[in-house]
TrEMBL record:
Residues 398-447 form the EcxA zinc-binding domain. Keywords: Membrane, Signal, Transmembrane, Transmembrane helix. It holds the Pfam family DUF4953. This is DUF5117 domain-containing protein. Residues 1-21 form the signal peptide. The lineage of its organism: Bacteria, Pseudomonadati, Pseudomonadota, Gammaproteobacteria, Alteromonadales. InterPro entries: DUF5117, EcxA_zinc-bd, MetalloPept_cat_dom_sf, Zn_MMP-like_bac. The chain crosses the membrane at residues 452-474. It comes from the Bacteria. Residues 82-271 form the DUF5117 domain.
Length: 489
């Protein structure tokens, strides 16, 4: 019987003409689901555990980023809390009854107004389809995305294999979408999932930080991020600029000009009164410190990161940079918050600064600083060893504490500098330590005593062993990190 006939028959029996059968499948899903609206609208249907996404941005590029809100806790493995994954520029496209998520190839371009030249480059290089789903019928374009987010797009299995932990595979039977981790903000939408990786034999490092080394469960986040709007001017990279950079190949350049184009990574910062004269800024760059940092380390990190306030002011951008403690009602998942995270590991490891950038221009969208909590403890132990011969133990303890906090201040400033787009400046140590982007070196003054000289010789040997150990750790960590990270230690 046709739907019109059904409605007529029900009406003749005295019931309303609107029937359940008339409700489109997509509308029914929306009625039954936990609704989260923002940059992307998401609908979680609790009875089936299905997550649906409303595709209202067809053929519009945006960023897809994975991250780890919960880390593994091993420096040797390198999968830390807060770690950002590869930045992918993607877009949804409709092909018949299907929605595909395509990663666009931003490495090969034609910066020209000539459509034929642009098409020639677009058709010369491959894209990557990351996922495909079937549209749910109805007025709203809904598509189930469980098989998109319940996947190892972050590359955890590859990292475990590369770090010698064995053959871990994603176990879908022990992996689930976390309803409380489905959020949508003005410029990004996030989906948190708990993924379990299984191996027949536990990896040595995994076993040290996991209750059952054969089953490693971590929390992974998929972030759909809006690309910045117009108004940002990309700035060409120069080797003497001291900045980190990204690059692409522009096939529209004249044949006598370089094919590879490089641009620096930096935040958008505009003066109220443009020009060389000092001016207040339209919108300051604000970094937020993880509220989980205890005192007195918290104050030391705030002090160190705030060194950049004076640097921006002296550069002519008055109040251009600020650092604040993350408010209790703020959500660090909001992409508008540049974060300084305090990360715990089972062993001491590197701190680093990462920037989520617009691959088209190099504009920094979010700065993410990761500070290892065991660094300050290691510095304290070193300081205690250096002052072991002091007769005044109260003074020795004060000196060890002061050295540790001074070192953590410097570390905060250094890693924030990376997320501002600055590279290392190892020449600064030969120029009165002019840059916080250098590594600080111990300054030792020889006062002439043979005994002191012997102690300093032993100290130099100890520092050599420490530096050698740090180099080994760095090589392992950098090997584990994805090549697409905008990262420096």
């Amino acid at each position: 019987m046709k739907p019109q006939s059904v409605a007529l028959a029900i009406a003749l029996l005295g019931f309303p003409a609107v029937t359940v059968a008339a409700i489109a499948p997509s509308a029914k899903i929306i009625q039954q689901s936990q609704e989260v609206k923002g940059f992307v609208n998401l609908y979680y249907e609790p009875s089936q555990g299905e997550l649906y996404l409303e595709v209202n941005r067809l053929n519009q590029p945006f960023l897809l980023v994975t991250s780890l809100p919960q880390g593994v806790g091993s420096n040797d493995i390198g999968l830390d809390r807060g770690q950002l994954g590869q930045t992918r520029m993607v877009q949804f496209e409709r092909q018949g009854p299907y929605i595909v998520l395509k990663q666009l190839n931003s490495q090969y371009r034609a910066n020209t107004l000539d459509a034929a030249e642009q098409r020639a480059v677009a058709e010369a290089f491959a894209d990557s389809v990351l996922w495909q789903g079937k549209v749910v019928e109805g007025q709203s374009v809904l598509v189930a995305i469980n098989d998109l987010v319940l996947s190892d797009l972050h590359g955890v299995s590859s990292v475990l294999q590369q770090t010698g932990q064995g053959d871990y595979q994603l176990d879908l039977g022990r992996s689930v979408i976390l309803p409380t981790g489905i959020k949508s903000f003005a410029k990004n939408a996030d989906v948190d999932v708990q993924l379990t990786f299984k191996a027949d034999v536990a990896g040595e490092q995994v076993a040290q930080v996991t209750p059952d080394g054969r089953l490693m469960s971590v929390r992974m986040r998929y972030s759909f991020v809006e690309l910045p709007d117009a108004g940002y001017q990309a700035r060409a990279y120069h080797p003497m600029s001291g900045y980190l950079s990204d690059e692409y190949r522009d096939y529209a350049t004249p044949f006598d000009q370089p094919l590879v184009q490089r641009f620096i990574l930096r935040h958008r910062l505009q003066k109220v009164h443009p020009g060389p004269a000092p001016s207040e800024v339209v919108k300051p760059i604000i970094y937020y410190l993880d509220s989980g940092v205890p005192e007195p380390i918290r104050s030391a990190l705030l002090d160190g990161a705030r060194w950049w306030e004076s640097a921006f002011t002296r550069a002519g951008f008055i109040n251009g940079f600020k650092v604040e403690l993350l408010p209790k009602d703020a959500d660090p998942q909001d992409i508008r918050y540049n974060m300084i995270q305090w990360v715990h590991r089972a062993t001491r490891g590197w701190s680093y600064g990462v920037a989520l950038t617009d691959p088209r221009t190099g504009e920094i969208i979010k700065g993410q600083v990761t500070l290892g909590s065991l660094r300050v403890r290691q510095d304290y132990l070193i300081a205690k060893g250096l002052t072991a011969g002091w007769q005044d133990r109260i003074a020795a303890d004060k000196a060890a504490t002061a050295l540790s906090l001074a070192r953590i201040r410097q570390l905060a400033a250094h890693e924030v500098g990376h997320t501002l787009g600055l590279d290392h400046n190892f020449a600064a140590s030969s120029n009165q330590d002019a840059s916080v982007m250098d590594y600080p070196h111990p300054k030792i003054q020889l006062k002439g005593a043979i005994l002191i000289f012997q102690h300093l010789t032993l100290l130099a040997s100890a520092f050599g062993m420490i530096l050698l150990s740090l180099m080994v750790i760095a090589m392992r960590a950098m090997h584990a990190l994805n090549k697409h990270y905008k990262l420096s230690c």
